[in-house]
Amino acid sequence: MSDAPVALVTGASRGLGYAVGRALGARGFRVVAVARTVGGLEELADAIEAEGGPSPTLVPLSLTDFQGLARLCLAVHERWGHLDLAVHCAANAPPLAPAPFIADKDFDQSIEVNLRATERLVTMLTPLLRAAPAGHFIHVTDDRAGQPNHGAYGAAKAAAEALLRSFAAESARIGPKVSIFLPRPMPTALRARFFPGENPAGLAPCAEEAARLLELVDVPAPVASA
């Protein structure tokens, strides 16, 4: 599978990122899985390999470690020379609070992870995506901007979406392709922080939303399990 497409997925240790990484691996992508949680990354690797996909590259890394991101991009360049797909699923869920009572540290953390890290990914991954025949950046957004008590989270996610919309317009002719994906509510750890005790029965499984996201991408059919 030396010519297999290469996909980088953030937030790949759980939730939607895990489901996207697993689905891409099943379709023969070489997955570069980025997350802070080593155990979740190892579970993803086990799942991909059990389903016959290529062994993923596991990268335990915080998206706020910009020097680490730079080293990762250099490693991708040296190994493959390009990146076919980037799916940015990672997000930070700050504590809920009315706007006048948001703690500075919580607001700063939300901006750092949900906005600043997104900007760094755009900056660092664009050369790798442009080196591919049809590079594609997919940003997972949220529609909670303006909802009560979601000021820190909603402001950062709304700003990140605005950044990606500009990036999409700027890249329309020269690439990479840029897509923004809004998933349905899912039973993720992030959502559980906002809605503790919520009955997950009415939520969309992460695997279903990963399949919807991959409808945006020209992906091979799943490989046969070994």
UniProtKB/TrEMBL annotation:
PROSITE patterns: ADH_SHORT (PS00061). Keywords: Oxidoreductase. One of its GO terms (molecular function) is oxidoreductase activity. Gene3D superfamilies: NAD(P)-binding Rossmann-like Domain. InterPro entries: NAD(P)-bd_dom_sf, Sc_DH/Rdtase_CS, SDR_fam. GO terms for cellular component: membrane. Belongs to the short-chain dehydrogenases/reductases (SDR) family. This is SDR family NAD(P)-dependent oxidoreductase. The lineage of its organism: Bacteria, Pseudomonadati, Pseudomonadota, Alphaproteobacteria, Rhodobacterales.
